[in-house]
Specification:
It is elongated and about 55 Å long. It is built from six helices and two strands. The chain has helices at about 5-15, 20-45, 50-80, 90-120, 140-145, 150-185; strands at about 130, 135-140. Helix 2 runs antiparallel to helix 3 (about 50-80) and helix 3 (about 50-80) packs across helix 4 (about 90-120). It is mainly α. It has a single domain (about 5-195), classed as Fumarate Reductase Cytochrome B subunit.
Length: about 200
């Protein structure tokens, strides 16, 4: 029996070099949905009037989908240890990477949730039901919908502003996340991309 091969197999089992297939699938489902939703959100104001409502409805549907997938990803992450970063990384790089991932998970929850609250506080929410990808009705947050109209209008504006600022934070973090991965891949020659590809 080859003891060297066995020890390598044991080490890989204890300290995997790649994310699990489920983690990869969730990552590559969420990433394009989030980027696509950024494009939809930024382009809505410049579209013809008859396009605005379908685009906004699609934006909402994608947001709810991302929220569900992000919750699944967090549950999976809690129960499955991710692969360690390359040993060559400086301590500050590892700390920055972990902090960025934490904030990214936070935004994956907070951004769609703030949008859902914003939509639930819309004054016309009761007469304009939300449909998830136009397939079936999706509920608003009942507590918010049933608030006093004056308070609800104020909350609509506040949740809208929060959603916008969280969106800006996401744009910046996605740019750093993608830029950092490409830097490590092409400049440092210390690939982190291969941890997240089959």
């Amino acid at each position: 029996m080859n003891t060297h091969t066995d020890s390598l197999t044991d080490a890989t089992a204890m300290h995997p070099t790649r994310y699990t297939r489920t983690a990869m699938t969730l990552h590559w489902l969420i990433a394009p949905l989030m980027i696509g939703n950024v494009v939809l959100g930024l382009s809505a104001d410049s579209l013809p009037d008859d396009w605005v409502r379908p685009v906004i409805d699609t934006h909402k549907s994608i947001g709810i989908t991302v929220l569900g997938l992000a919750l699944l990803r967090i549950l999976w992450r809690v129960s499955h240890k991710p692969p360690p970063l390359p040993r060559e990384f400086a301590s500050w790089e590892k700390i920055a990477a972990h902090a960025a991932h934490f904030v990214l998970y936070l935004l994956m929850i907070a951004l769609p949730l703030s949008g859902w609250l914003h939509d639930s506080a819309w004054k016309d929410a009761a007469t304009h039901p939300m449909r998830l990808f136009n397939l079936f009705a999706w509920p608003r947050i009942g507590y918010v919908m049933n608030l006093d109209p004056t308070l609800k209008e104020s909350l609509h504006d506040r949740f809208g502003a929060l959603h916008t600022w969280l969106g800006y934070a996401l744009y910046a973090l996605l740019a750093m996340h993608i830029g950092g991965a490409l830097k490590h891949q092409w400049l440092d020659r210390k690939s982190v991309l291969e941890r997240m590809v089959p």
